[in-house]
Input
Amino acid sequence: MYASLKSIGSYVPEKIMTNKDFEKIVDTSDEWIEQRTGIKERRIATADQATSDLGAKAAEKAIQRAGINKDEIDLVICATLSPDHLCMPSTACLISDKVGIRNCMAFDVAAACSGFVYMLSIAKAFIESGAKKNILLVGAEKISSLVDYTDRGTCILFGDGAGAAIIGVTEDKNEAIIDIHASADGKYSDLLITPGCGSKYPCRADNVDDKLQYIKMAGNEVFKVAVRTLTKDVVDILKTNGITSDDIDLFVPHQANLRIIEAVRNKLNFPKEKTVFTVGKYGNTSAASIPMAINDAYEAGRLKKGDLMLLDTFGGGFTWASGLVRFGGD
Ligand code: COA
Output
């Protein structure tokens, strides 16, 4: 019995924020942003949309495409770094309620941008052990709520959006999640961090005045570790499974920066045609980035049942993860 990615869905808010829009609020330029990041525009949620609203819309699509009833879903997991509420309830509980899924286990995963691939690893274990049969995974982010729009080094990078998938059971290895490698190293935690509004720097006026509630990043250092780690991660998972980049139908990297994607792609000789690029239109949507990219490929007709995807992601923590996943959807 194997775990299979049966369907994919995504949702992006309507509002587009272009690089030109940033020229009006920080000292930057359209050219600088595009050259250094590959980002042209990103989506921004409305004030009354929370992360769970975006996630619920993506979830509805994935459920409908999987062709299952909501009451067949026996586990809901949400990966996010921008939960609706800091402590409770979990965003997974809120998404379950909005979608109409009742009486099943629901919880959040905190692994920053690696969250979706971390969830695949959890879902694979639940399915292969026989404990669950239909698992809803949602990567959803309203990162605009955590961004300091006076910090030009971070605000230009992020966007809002959500992606979702149904992981079900299959007996056919040609539709299975083959392998997931997931890892972390907390010694880099300060390089990419939202310091405030947790137990260390509670949501007090002094901490908020110091802007500790916003994302802080040592961009250049993160960049270097990201390229090194993402490349090694891919080499390792291919080697462990005895396959080469030629066997991969679709390379789906985390969409943080086009230069990071290109560095990894060139080192591993993946052709452009086999790589998914969405960073230009959505920016970095953290835990939503990988499922949104898979959905993009699916809707463009680039993903068929049985195709072998290579997923590769990196994020705050630091966390990182790669996955070899055969698409099990129609
Ligand atoms: N517009 C114009 N100039 C900017 C700028 C902006 N939006 N942001 C930073 N700069 C400036 C810096 O202040 C610096 O100026 P200085 O030389 O006068 O000090 C200069 O550009 C170079 O900064 P640096 O940080 O070295 O640039 P970079 O080439 O590393 O690009 C990032 C910056 C953030 C785009 C890049 O480091 C990056 O993408 N890092 C990884 C981000 C990431 O993937 N994070 C999430 C991981 S999941």
